[in-house]
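Researcher: Re-running this chain for the archive, since the previous output was lost when a drive failed. Same request as before.
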Amino acid sequence: MSEFVKVERRDDGVAVLRLDRPKANALSAQVLAEIEAAAAQLHDDPPGAVVVWGGERIFAAGADIVEFTKGGGGAEAGVVDGPDAVAIAHNFRRALDAVAAIPRAVIAAVNGYALGGGCELALACDFRVAADNARFGQPEILLGIIPGGGGTQRLARLVGASRAKEIILSGRQVDAEEAHRIGLADRVVPAASVLDEAVAWAAELAKGPVVAHGLAKRAIDAGLDRPLSEGLELEGQLFGDVFATEDAATGVRSFLESGPGKATFSGR
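Model: Regenerated structure tokens:
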């Protein structure tokens, strides 16, 4: 049983992955393991779409800094050494890669702070709905360290290398308006509406050809890590795969009979 991470599967095809570790949803090794387990479950038995939410006050403030000290014994015990730090990074890698690998659209619903590992969790999602009071950032540099949960890679791919370097090297926080302007947030809404907006978006996506969503997501994400020619080859392979789905037959037939945008998909 998970202590800090719960998954609610709704009747509209949306699954809400909820973080609830008071007070700041700090991403300890246990929380990361629970995120990884929940994401694996959503991968193996995918819903129509997924929303990741940290609650009304805060998305996630980042890593549990206590775990950066030897034995978790506080500042007087000294910081962990390199191998232990790499192990912490691997915990983040496994958990956030599992979120990114869910073969459906994943939307982060961000209230309040999404900092450090919390920002990296939001980056592992496909889209981000931000409250008008939300603040994103990678403040690790203020501790004399660097992001270890994907921030240097996913942030640069999302907003560009120069902007990512400025945000990471300064450690500053990015407010919702700037996040939207630079592409870090996809939508900005009043704080009270964040979860409802994210769920409504996810529910609309869940009505679509969700297997095709997963294949398109795979083509984009995997293609970014390859030369263009290999990405195009992957796209061609997945284009062939999608024609084996029931939704492809439904969509093509509906287009021929009624024109575009009229198909009702089964998600198979």
